[in-house]
Amino acid sequence: MSIDAFARSVFDPLRKPPGKIICVGMNYSAPGVPPPSLPYPALFLKAGSTIIGPGSAIQIPDTSDKVFCEGEVAVVIGRQGRHIPRAQAWDYIVGLSIANDVGAEDLEARSTQWQTGKLPDTFLPLGPRLVPLAEIPDPGHLQIELFINDRLALRGNTGEMIFDIPTLIAYISDLATLYPGDILVTGSPKGLGDLPAPKAYVRPGDVVTITITGLGSLSNPVHKERS
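Request: output the structure for the sequence above.
Response:
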């Protein structure tokens, strides 16, 4: 399968969704704040029904009024693997893209887990394309910026990850077999310059744009969910 065909099969929400969407929480610390003392990555799952493409609307459900967005690198698996050594992790990745990990803070607060606030439909915009690793000079150091309308709300670099991409691949593949099309959403920076960034809350009428070095820009409007 060509890269373009594979990208369409992964990112077109009308096609079969990926088998697993594995997300990483608390993978960056805020500027001036010590990193979380975590022996292992904090993982949670998203459903295939959360995926939308560029330009599609993030729908704020009636049950929430505290929706926020996070700009992240999405890693797409290209080869089946189990117990993948860290040194070989890049060999199992077909490419990278941009993810907007949308969450509802008030729904998350209903439980001790994040899952409740991460499940609503449209809460994982992806795109604009799947970029092969060969086109990315240094995938371990990519600049991430998130804008709400014209306001810069978040900035960071993948070099600031607590658990980098090869470490995540090795760890997750020890838990479960990774299959082609599985997506790993690697966590969001927490900074804005030298200062911690507040959560990037959005409301209907906003447009969220995430730009990542070498991966392009992903833009999505925000609407209120229609009953």
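The two ends are 39 Å apart (CA to CA).
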